[in-house]
Automatic annotation (TrEMBL), chain A:
Keywords: ATP-binding, Nucleotide-binding, Transport
Protein name according to UniProt: ABC transporter ATP-binding protein
Residue ranges annotated for the ABC transporter domain, each copy included: 7-232
A GO molecular-function annotation: ATP binding
Transmembrane regions listed in the UniProt entry: none
Family that this chain belongs to: Belongs to the ABC transporter superfamily.
The organism's taxonomic lineage, starting at the top: Bacteria, Bacillati, Actinomycetota, Actinomycetes, Micrococcales
Superkingdom to which the source organism belongs: Bacteria
Length: 300, 282
């Protein structure tokens, strides 16, 4: 079983002329876990991953796999499998030939080509030219490339973009399995909700800067818990909440009360004799926390 | 070493898994075959007396026809003197295609040693250019000799000089493909690259070479133009025969021509490495 290596970014910075795309980022990504690398459009995710993979040279700082830069890995594809956003294939080349070329260049056995095509569900389409592939099929082909060398580290840039619901379900399971086998899995996305179900840790950047890192649960503590409550008589509900000393604000589907437990709000309404038509915990807590964190980032 | 071999095998696979190589090869064969067959028929017809020179086109008479004995090498050399644009295009397309289709990303992920990848590409295209040379010769010598023979003119195929011309043509075509790779990294925009190849080979250089023949000094400089160097390497060309009457015609030795062409390929490739190849892939 391939073992994952620790990915380490230390003080990595990239400037394109006047634009600082990535600004002094430092963080580590551990094996055996799925790490979500999140940020709004233009936050610098792709640039950071390209620096990790030696495709873009950092203005300063380093990015390494178990202490080695990508360029210094003795067997890059057998160590790291990377699929970058807008995976690039020659439109006139078949998927099978594309994979065979990668395998040849990396010195991997050509028998792997059929195996990985099968793994990503493209076995029947291997002979088609990549130019006729749909976005989802290209994503799968990109993923097939990452698996060629059965690497211990996976670096995937927006792998969920363009996948159908079945594909999304499949890739979530796939990411979990990979991490469970002890591999390092780094997945970028501009939507927390897209990866929320599969990540253990999150790294959030905005405007090229680190704004949050930690386990997914650490995000929950970032937002005050809220309970959504509604009544046919909102005015009565509002005064009942005020009298009980609960802060609240008007929301789209009712009042947003600052409370952890819906039961406490229910009790307040009950004792005030106010009819309740809706009562539940605010579910979008994580997404809100994410948005609050990246807000300074002027998402596009 | 095994790493370089691997890289070369990958480059060959890249070249052979898209359609451009055989499209170019087919057009090369057809174009050179028609030109060699047609001109061989015209000149051999005149030489053998089968065609009346005054009926042959513009009425310049026998002035434009080559002296007896030089016709076969002239016809055979069409393979490179006219066909050289094809290996250049092949090399340029193979290189600029990587930028255009963003395949540099998978390429550099599989092999992050970029200089090695570029070296492998040059070697691969050099060999592919040699194959293009063989295809072009199949057209110019194959069809040309058939026609020449049909008019009862000596094909000179028993002559060792003819065979060394054939061998040098293969080398020239191989070098031209390497020049194409160099151009491709120097000018990674595919459209710009193609425009430069076509404009330079079909228009700029022929014009420069023709104009330079009127004085000694410019003629000397013009021998270092890539097309002139290639013709010197091959040893016969339509240009060296179609100059203005009494004009200065100096050429390099064949090996000097080869070195000049090699220098163009090397300079463009090394320059292109710094201009585009080692840059950020975004
Ligand atoms: N080659 C380049 N030249 C100049 N600026 C660039 C280049 N590549 C990226 N940038 C800039 O760097 C910043 C970060 O871009 P990047 O693609 O890394 O963001 P991202 O987080 O991947 O965004 P998205 O979610 O849209 O994929 C952007 O402002 C972008 O305009
Ligand atoms: Mg991106």
């Amino acid at each position: 079983m391939p073992v994952g290596a620790v990915i380490e970014f230390s003080n990595i910075t990239k400037r394109f002329g006047d634009v600082t795309a990535v600004d002094d980022l430092s963080f580590t990504v551990e094996p055996g876990r799925v790490t979500g690398f999140l940020g709004p459009n233009g936050a610098g995710k792709t640039t950071t991953l390209r620096m990790l993979l030696g495709l873009v040279s950092p203005s300063s700082g380093t990015a390494t796999f178990g202490g080695l830069r990508y360029h210094d890995l003795p067997h890059p594809l057998a160590t790291v499998g990377a699929a970058l956003e807008a995976a690039s294939f020659h439109p006139g080349r078949t998927a099978r030939n594309h994979l065979a070329i990668c395998a040849t260049a990396a010195g991997l056995p050509s028998a792997r080509v059929a195996e990985v095509l099968h793994l990503v569900g493209l076995a029947e389409h291997g002979g088609q030219r990549a130019g006729v592939y749909s976005l989802g099929m290209r994503q799968r082909l990109g993923l097939a490339c990452t698996l060629l060398g059965d690497p211990g580290v996976l670096v995937l840039d927006e792998p969920i973009n363009g996948l159908d619901p079945e594909g999304i379900k499949w890739i979530r399971g796939f990411l979990r399995d990979m991490a469970a086998e002890g591999r390092t899995v780094l997945v970028s996305s501009h939507l927390l909700s897209e990866v929320q179900q599969s990540v253990d840790d999150v790294i959030i950047i905005a405007k090229g800067r680190l704004v949050h890192r930690g386990p997914l649960s650490s995000l929950e503590t970032q937002v005050a818990p809220q309970v959504v409550v509604d009544s046919p008589d909102r005015a009565a509900l509002a005064s009942a909440l005020s009298q009980a000393g609960v802060a609240f604000s008007p929301g789209r589907t009712g009042l947003l009360a600052a409370a952890t437990d819906p039961a406490t709000i229910g009790h307040i309404a009950f004792t005030a004799g106010v009819e309740v038509s809706a009562l539940h915990r605010q579910k979008k807590g994580l997404e809100d926390a994410f948005l609050a964190l990246v807000d300074g980032g002027d998402s596009l | 070493m095994t790493m370089l071999l691997r890289a070369i095998r990958a480059e060959f696979a890249k070249l052979l898994t898209t359609r451009i190589w055989w499209i170019l090869a087919a057009v090369l064969f057809g174009y050179i075959g028609m030109l060699s067959g047609g001109l061989a028929a015209l000149f051999a017809g005149i030489q053998s007396g089968a065609i009346d020179p005054s009926a042959a086109g513009t009425g310049t008479g026998t002035q434009g026809t080559p002296p007896l004995g030089s016709l076969p090498p002239l016809v055979y050399s069409f393979a490179s003197s006219v066909g050289y644009v094809f290996p250049v295009l092949l090399g340029a397309l193979a290189t600029t295609g990587e930028f255009r289709h963003q395949t540099l990303t998978p390429t550099f992920l599989a092999n992050p040693r970029r200089a090695q990848v570029l070296g492998a590409k040059v070697i691969t295209l050099f060999l592919a250019g040699a194959a293009f040379g063989a295809i072009a010769l199949l057209a110019s010598v194959g069809i040309g000799a058939l026609v020449i023979n049909a008019f009862g003119v000596d094909t000179l195929l028993g002559d060792s000089a003819t065979w060394s011309l054939i061998g040098r043509t293969v080398i020239a075509m191989a070098l031209w493909a390497a020049v194409g790779v160099g151009l491709g990294v120097l000018v990674p925009s595919q459209v710009a690259s193609i425009v430069i190849v076509l404009a330079f080979t079909q228009f700029v250089e022929p014009l420069l070479r023709f104009a330079s023949m009127f004085t000694e000094a410019t003629a000397g400089i013009a021998t270092f133009l890539p097309g002139a160097a290639s013709d010197a390497l091959v040893g016969a060309s339509i240009f060296t025969m179609a100059g203005p009457v009494g004009g200065a015609t100096s050429t390099l030795d064949w090996w000097q021509g080869g070195l000049v062409l090699l220098a163009y390929a090397a300079a463009a490739t090394v320059g292109g490495y710094f201009v585009s190849w080692r840059r950020d892939v975004t």
